Structure formats: structure tokens, C-alpha cells
């Protein structure tokens, strides 16, 4: 599989949404979660996104406590009309106290959060504004109502939600059209297929799968995460990456390795192709947002949009998710899956 800079195909991000490349880009790892970043290489990777037609650029206010949005600002200034810029609010953080964390969905907080994101990103409008996590103590109508006010005021163009159930998506969509739902979805993580995916398909909401490479696990890079991960890496806290689970989960990748070898592709590319095709089964638009800080990997991931897996290959991958050892977070209480039990 060649990794050319030929532009990837485009799609409408949800009914009436913006036109974006069918694969987007997750910027989180540049400033948070996955250890040290070579910032020059990360800037070069950002440039490669637009060259490859990867136009949906994803960040959040809490990634690096505002640092990720600030890092993106020069890129946003240089490419404002070529990209669809998505950011999120909801995790209240304090730069001087990394242990502090609260989920805030109240209108007063949303209003302050949007102004801070606009300032850090150096733009006067956010294309897609997500509620990052749901706080069930705040009525959804209040939060989405406040987000809809931002659309009317021209600060935001489209609305998104992250980690909500199918029922919550329907409730929110009745208040104001929701353009995109962003939740983890990959060969390893399929709890969204319980209710969220079906609701999104029915409502014409695009699905934006986050961590489509299983936070890197599906690239085959982690046989023994205890040894493979450095001190500051958030994945050390994730049950799937720890001890016996990591070793058992690495063994589950055998069909991905086999398909990749037969096609002259990488396991990352097979994992990304799986998400695109699984969405077709459900009849919905997906724009996965793999994250990388390396130009070559960005191009490798974009090239995966040209792979179509056969029915036989899909069947080989089908049983994997049901066998994964360990949850996708140590604390699942903030996920949509927790509210579906
Ligand atoms: N809404 C939410 O709650 C939420 C949660 C998590 C993430 N997200 C969003 O989703 C985006 C993507 O998720 P993610 O970054 O967690 O996980 P991911 O995209 O599944 O995997 C990222 C990891 O894979 C590595 N990688 C990427 N392409 C590769 C390739 N071709 N070969 C080998 N390794 C490769 C990256 O390393 P290098 O960087 O070193 O290449 C990084 O360690 C984030 O950036 C963020 O924007 C949203």
C-alpha cells in the first residue's frame, strides 16, 4: 500500500454538515497523554494533514490544559479556510493543579469555555464544538440550549457530543441538530454499537470514532506495555495496557497481522479500514480521527482510506472485541457505556 499525498475522498459530516476528508486528525497526543513530543515533527505532521486532504482537526480545551489549542493556533491561522476545526469543553481543569478534574455542562461554564478556546485557537469561530463528557446532573436541554445560543451568536458553526448514549443523542438532537457524535470505536472497542451508532445513523449524525487505533495498541506496538511505555504515558493507567491483559490482547492481533501481511499493508491501516467498513454496515458516515506526531504515519493512515476489506477478512476480525481483556478506561463512570448498563 503506497503512502502518497494524493488527497483522500470527502464526505458531508452529518446531514447538512461541512465537507471533510473521510479521515480526520486527532491532535491530543501532541500535548498530552502519550509522552514526549518532538514539536518540529508534530508541526510538520500538521502540515501533512491538509496536503493529504485530512481536514477535520480535533482538539479539546483540556488537552495539555489549553496547550494543545495554543499549539494549533499558527496552523489554524495559516489554513483557516482549508480545515474544519473541532474543539471541546466539559472537563474543567486547573493548570496549577493537575489532580483537579470536574465535569461541567452548565451554561455559565460553557460560555466562559468557548471564549477561552477561541482566544487560544486565535480564531473568531469554532467549526464544531463538542460537549466532551456528560454530567447527568445538568439537564441536557440546558447544555445543548446554551450551545445552540453560541451557534446563533456566530461563535460556533456546528454542535457535537462525546460519549453519550443513543437516548441522550436523540434528546439533544431534538433541542438543536447535532452534527457529530465522537466516542471510542475500533476493532477493540465496540460498546457504541449497542445504541449510539444506531441512533446516529437514524438521525443523520456523523460518527467520529476516537482512538480508532486503540490508542496505538492496534498498531502492534505494545506486546508488554509495562516495558514499552515511558513514565509520563497515560496508557500505563489503562487496564488494557497493563500486565497480563496487554500480553493477552497483543495475541488477539494475529488476524490483523495476517491480513496486513497478505495485503502489504500495516496493522494500523487494517484497523482504520475496519472502522470505515463497520460504519457502512450500520449505514452511517464515519470520520475517524487517528492521532500521530509523525508525517509518515499520517500518510500511512490516510492511505488506509483506499483499502476495502473482504467479507472473509471482516469475519476474521469480528470476534476480537468480545475477547479483549480489560476496560477502555480504569474508571468507566464517565463513559456512555456506563449509562447503558
Ligand atoms: N472525545 C474523547 O473523549 C477523546 C478521547 C481520546 C482521544 N480523543 C481524540 O481522538 C484522537 C485519536 O485518539 P488517540 O490519539 O487517543 O488514539 P489513536 O489514534 O487510536 O492512537 C494514537 C497512537 O497511535 C500511534 N500511531 C498513530 N498512527 C500510527 C501508525 N500508523 N503506526 C504506528 N503507530 C501509530 C501514535 O503515536 P505517534 O503520535 O508517536 O505517532 C499514538 O501513540 C485524539 O488525538 C483526540 O483528538 C478524544
From TrEMBL:
The keyword Transferase does not apply. The lineage of its organism: Bacteria, Bacillati, Actinomycetota, Actinomycetes, Kitasatosporales. The keyword Ligase does not apply. Coiled coil: none annotated. Keywords: Oxidoreductase. This is Aldo/keto reductase. Pfam families: Aldo_ket_red (PF00248). GO terms for molecular function: oxidoreductase activity. GO terms for cellular component: cytoplasm. InterPro entries: Aldo-Keto_reductase, NAD(P)_OxRdtase_dom_sf, NADP_OxRdtase_dom. Residues 24-318 form the NADP-dependent oxidoreductase domain.
Amino acid at each position: 500500500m503506497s503512502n502518497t499525498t494524493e488527497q483522500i475522498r470527502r464526505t458531508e459530516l452529518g446531514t447538512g454538515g461541512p465537507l471533510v476528508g473521510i479521515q480526520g486528525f486527532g491532535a491530543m497526543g501532541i500535548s498530552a497523554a502519550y509522552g514526549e513530543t518532538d514539536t518540529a515533527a508534530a508541526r510538520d505532521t500538521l502540515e501533512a494533514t491538509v496536503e493529504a486532504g485530512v481536514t477535520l482537526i480535533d482538539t479539546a480545551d483540556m488537552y495539555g490544559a489549553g496547550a494543545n489549542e495554543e499549539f494549533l493556533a499558527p496552523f489554524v491561522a495559516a489554513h483557516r479556510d482549508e480545515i474544519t476545526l473541532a474543539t471541546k469543553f466539559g472537563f474543567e481543569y486547573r493548570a496549577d493543579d493537575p489532580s483537579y478534574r470536574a465535569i461541567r455542562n452548565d451554561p455559565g461554564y460553557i460560555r466562559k469555555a468557548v471564549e477561552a478556546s477561541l482566544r487560544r485557537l486565535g480564531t473568531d469561530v469554532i467549526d464544531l464544538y463538542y460537549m466532551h463528557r456528560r454530567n447527568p446532573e445538568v439537564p441536557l436541554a440546558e447544555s445543548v440550549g446554551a450551545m445552540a445560543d453560541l451557534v446563533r451568536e456566530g461563535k460556533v458553526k456546528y454542535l457535537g457530543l462525546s460519549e453519550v448514549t443513543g437516548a441522550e443523542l436523540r434528546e439533544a438532537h431534538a433541542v438543536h441538530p447535532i452534527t457529530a457524535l465522537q466516542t471510542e470505536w475500533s476493532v477493540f472497542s465496540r460498546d457504541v454499537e449497542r445504541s449510539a451508532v444506531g441512533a446516529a445513523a437514524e438521525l443523520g449524525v456523523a460518527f467520529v470514532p476516537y482512538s480508532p487505533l486503540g490508542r496505538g495498541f492496534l498498531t502492534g506496538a505494545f506486546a508488554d506495555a509495562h516495558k514499552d511505555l515511558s513514565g509520563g504515558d497515560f496508557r500505563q493507567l489503562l487496564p488494557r495496557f497493563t500486565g497480563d491483559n496487554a500480553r493477552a490482547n497483543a495475541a488477539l492481533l494475529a488476524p490483523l497481522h495476517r491480513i496486513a501481511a497478505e495485503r502489504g499493508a500495516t496493522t494500523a491501516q487494517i484497523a482504520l479500514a475496519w472502522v470505515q467498513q463497520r460504519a457502512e454496515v450500520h449505514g452511517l458516515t464515519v470520520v475517524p480521527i487517528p492521532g500521530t506526531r509523525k508525517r509518515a504515519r499520517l500518510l500511512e493512515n490516510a492511505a488506509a482510506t483506499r483499502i476495502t476489506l473482504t467479507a472473509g477478512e471482516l469475519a476474521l476480525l469480528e470476534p476480537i472485541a468480545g475477547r479483549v481483556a480489560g476496560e477502555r478506561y480504569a474508571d468507566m463512570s464517565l463513559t456512555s457505556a456506563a449509562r447503558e448498563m
